[in-house]
Structure formats: C-alpha cells, structure tokens
Amino acid sequence: MSITVYNTLIRKKVPFNTIEPGRVRMYVCGPTVYDHAHIGHGKLYISMDMILRYLRYTGLDVLYVQNITDVGHLLDSGEDRIMKGARREQTDPMQVVERYMRSYMDDMDALHNIRPDIMPRAAGHVPEQIAAVEQLIKNGNAYEVNGSVYFDVSSFPEYGKLSGRKIEELQEGTRLNTRAEKRRPEDFALWKRADPEHIMRWNSPWGEGFPGWHIECTAMAIKYLGANFDIHGGGLENVFPHNECEIAQSEALSGETFANFWLHAGSLTVSGVKMSKSLGNSVTIQDALNEYPAEVIRMFVLSSHYRSPIDYSKEAVDAAYKGWQRLIGPALSVQQILLTTQESDAAQSNFSSTIKQTRDDFKTAMDDDFNAPKAIACLFDFAKDVNGLLSEYPRPDDATLQSIAEVYNDLAGTVLGLLPANSTTSVNRDNELIEILVDLRKTARKQKDFATSDAIRDKLATIGVILEDGQSGTTWKTGFSNLSE
C-alpha cells in the first residue's frame, strides 16, 4: 500500500499498514450534542469524511464508528454540558440530546458527509463503561473515593506519550478545579458520583453516578472495533486530555495498543482564535449553509491541509466560492455538451494522456497524508486543460467527454465531495427554468435594473448555475443544481 499518514503518536509520516489486509477499522470522536454544531465542527468532520472517502475509493473496506456524547462531558466549571443545555432550554436533558443529535445529523448530511456505519451513544453504553471501570480497579489502575472512581495516572508509565506532556508538568497545570479527594491532581475521573440535583444518573457498584467523558470512547471503541484497531481520528484540541486519557485507560484495560494511527485535524479559527461557543465567535453550520452551498464550504475546508488550522472569514469563503466555480466550470460544460449537442458535430480527441496524468497526480497527492489542497491543485490544472480542449472546433467526441466527466465524478465528487450526486438528473429537469430566469435577467439588464440582474445571477450561483456575460450575450453552465430543494 502506498498511502502514508502523519501519526500524531510518533510525530512523523509513516506507511499506512492495516491490521487486516484490505480492511480498516476507524474511530472518530463525535460531538457533544447540547447545541447546534458550528462550522468548526464542520471542519473536523469534513476532514475525517475526506479521509474515509479516499480510503474507500482505493478499495479498502472501512468500518467507520463515530460516537455521540450525551453524558459526562464537563465544562471547566464542572457542569455537564448536556445539563447546561437542559437548563438553558428549561427541558429534560434527553430532549436536548435528541434535538441536537438530529440537528447534527442534518448538518452532516447537508455537508455531504457520509454517515458512519455505527454511531453509538454514551448513555446507551453505561453497562460497558461500568464494566471497564470495574476491571481497571481490579487491575490496580483506578481507585474509588466517596462514590467516584479515578484513574491513577502513576500506574501507567507511558501516560503523556501522545501529547508529549510529562506528569511533572501536569501536576503544575492541573491543581485548580480538581477534587481534593483525588490522590494527585493529574488523575482523571472514570465515574462521578451524582449530586442530589444531578438528573442524569445510573446505579453502579459505587452508588448512583454517571460516567466520565474519556471512558465512553474506550468502552465503545473496544466494543465495536476491538482492543486494537487501525485509526483514531479527532480534533487537535482533543489530543490532551481526552485522547491521552483514552490511551491510558484502554491500554491499561486490555494490555494492547489502542489505536495504531492517530490522525488529528487542525482547528478552525476566527481572527486567529479557535472557534468556540463559549467565546461567542461561533457560526453555526446552518447559518453558513444559508449563505453558501455545501460544496463551497467543503472547498473552503479542503483547500487547507486537514492537519493545518484555517481561519474562517467571509473573504476566505468567498474566495473558495470563486475557486469552486472555476474548478467545476469545465465539468458543467462537459455535461451540457453531452446533453444538448449531437456527436456528429464532434471529432476524436487525444486527451487520454492528460486524463491519466491527472488521475496519477491526484493519487500521489492523496497518498501523501491525504493532501487535499495539492489534489485540488491537480484538478485546477485539469480544468485548464479541459477548457482548452472545449474551445477547439469541432467539439471532442462523446467517449472523451465521458472520460472527462468520470474524472470529475471520481475525484472531485466521490473523493472530495465537491459535486452533488444528482447532477445529470438536475440538468434535464431544470434547463427550461434556468432559461426563464436568464431571460428575466436580460430584461432587467436592458432596463438598467442592475440590482435585480445581480440578484438573479447570485441566486443562480447558489444552486450551481454559472452565468457568463459576453459580446454575444449571456451563456450559462449547470449540472449541479436542484431547484426543488
């Protein structure tokens, strides 16, 4: 296998070798569902979706598990995030979970992210978490105090191997907001006793309480993927403490390497500051999708390497919008020609070497730690070559055009998710409606009603219809619209 990945665990790029030939087991930390997802979440899950898509495109059988956190993820204040959402909306915690889990799934679908094969919920796997905690106590890695159970970090000498932090440093940085009952500040909770007002609570050998945030991923990953699996993905901000704690408790529990490859996506920032609800600088995915097509948001995210941070701004997304239009323009033209002209007007074209070179260059880029920006650059070069070919007379033969369309469908569509899947159907259905809107725009331009003219152009652009004004009039390209949505 020629794929290489940057493994956070060893801080370098290495060949990606699977445990089972031809099969990948992949776990990605999912969202805590107490509010609408923001575009920072979109950055993470688009990045993981791109990795999943490419692995499957290469022929690998990927079992993709992504959890839903609906209990145990605490704020710095010690309050459960789900409880905070319930108090904010004056409703039951599980009602909050259901509402925002559905919202998250709708957002991911709208962004064209492929749904995970399994999406386990923490609250639905409390027995597995209790069993894991019991075993850790039995192994001498955990201890119980007043109904809470903590992992003894000193019992796992490799603690810090993912983040590079030393226990001495942790002792200096974790003395605040820690319970005095812990043996040492760096120890972390596996099970928390429930205070009288805490609604989310379960019976356990240590009394009524609820699981800690870290133990859920251990319990669910091991249940569905085994004690040792191929890929663990997530956001860079989760390397410490979440992923570090996962490794410690999982490997102490099973004695095996938890995940062989750790892949982390860089954060999304606003003016250099990480996007966060608590900082008040977040933009929901729903709001972003009201302003831009999903493909444009994906283009914005994938234009930066998945491990790199990216700064969100209107100017940056507008630039991605223009780039996306340039990228898909030739694909739209190809589909338009195939649907509207006769092959008797065509001539055979020798374009096969360009197609092969594009596929080879794209593969080389993606094999190098899923370098989507470089892969997109290959498609920009291809778009330039296709535009040149289409400018020739007579037009290319159908076989050449079909091969070009397959390149776009495979690379820009299947792998990067930049093209909707229903393009051909939409072309046939929407042509007459588009012509009507173009005629209305022509009338507005003649009447010097440029506000209406620009509005029609911009609205058509949001559904993938690109207008081009020239000396001979206005032409348009489409292929990725869906006017019924």
Compile the SSE list and pairings.
Layout: E1 4-7, E2 12-15, E3 23-28, H1 39-57, E4 61-66, H2 81-89, H3 93-110, H4 126-139, E5 142-145, E6 148-151, H5 167-173, E7 188-193, E8 209-211, H6 213-225, E9 229-235, H7 239-254, E10 259-265, E11 268-270, E12 273-274, H8 285-291, H9 294-302, E13 310-311, H10 314-340, E14 346-347, H11 352-367, H12 372-390, E15 395-396, H13 398-415, H14 423-446, H15 450-462, E16 466-470, E17 473-477
Parallel strand pairs: 3-4, 3-9, 9-10, 11-13, 14-15
Antiparallel strand pairs: 1-2, 5-6, 6-7, 7-8, 11-12, 16-17
Helix pairs in contact: 2-3, 4-6, 6-7, 9-10, 10-12, 10-13, 11-12, 11-13, 14-15
Structure explained in plain terms:
- The protein is of the alpha/beta class.
- It has 2 domains: 4-311, Rossmann fold (3-Layer(aba) Sandwich), CATH 3.40.50; 325-477, Up-down Bundle (Four Helix Bundle (Hemerythrin (Met), subunit A)), CATH 1.20.120.640.
- Helices cover 47% and strands 15% of the residues.
- The chain is built from 15 helices and 17 strands.
- It has helices spanning 39-57, 81-89, 93-110, 126-139, 167-173, 213-225, 239-254, 285-291, 294-302, 314-340, 352-367, 372-390, 398-415, 423-446, 450-462; strands at residues 4-7, 12-15, 23-28, 61-66, 142-145, 148-151, 188-193, 209-211, 229-235, 259-265, 268-270, 273-274, 310-311, 346-347, 395-396, 466-470, 473-477.
- The strands form 6 sheets. Strands 4-3-9-10 form a 4-stranded parallel beta sheet, sandwiched between helices. Strands 5-6-7-8 form a 4-stranded antiparallel beta sheet.
- α4 (126-139) crosses α6, α9 (294-302) packs across α10 (314-340) and α10 crosses α12.
- The longest helix is centred in the last third of the chain and has 27 residues, at 314-340.
